Amino acid sequence: GSLEATVRQEAESRIPFPAAETELRFLEVADVRQGDALRREVIVLACHRPRLDELLAGIEDAGFRPIAVEVEAIALLRCYSAQFRRDEDRDQRILFAHIGYSSTAVLIGKGSDVLFFKYLDIGGKHFDEAIARQLQMTTAEAWALRRHNGDRRADQQDPEIARSIADATRPVVDKLSNELSMCVRYHSVTFRGHALSRMVLAGGEATSALVDKLAAQLDLKAELGDPLRTFPDLNLPGRRTQWDIALGLALRPSASVGRVVAS
To answer: What is the predicted pLDDT for the residue at 99?
Structure first.
């Protein structure tokens, strides 16, 4: 349609690879008012097709059969929206921050609708690099120190190690907080009159300590995500928060199997 043509034309000047080699999808968000004009907010998703082909070839070489390609935002929101049982849950606007090792995916959703999505160049590796610099150790040693101390209950953590980790990673936490604050501000300006109800921290690098720090800095109610909440018998290894994207993909409706929905 005309909207698709307009989106493609606008996006082609912004994507970092040739348009002919690009898989492009977009999500229609909502009508928003800018001054006297009513405009349609859209989220554009782009992927370099050679990279996509490379990933699919690797999956097939491993003996698997790809049935769909989906963007993280859709899987992330599906995972948590499946837990909404009450109408008021579906009406709330929630900020999800999926903190991975190399980046953080930030999503604002209402029910099963994506309102905002952005990647931040902040993740677990940046925490490890900060610890390694300050404590003069390798990043592998920093990862082990942070992981082993952070996965213990607060009363079992070594206070001195916890303090050293907190001091070393404070600039990274502050940067993450500032970036999340700008995402919140964008939402409040774009969707005037609609406040966020809470923030959910997810991904393999999310911790209770980080939840507390970001909640205080953003002045926003926050919680640690539990993608397995409605699957109490699933006993998966590692941190529960790391399974949100995988679970969201597994919950994908079977009716759309075989169709590429987004890349």
So the answer is: 97
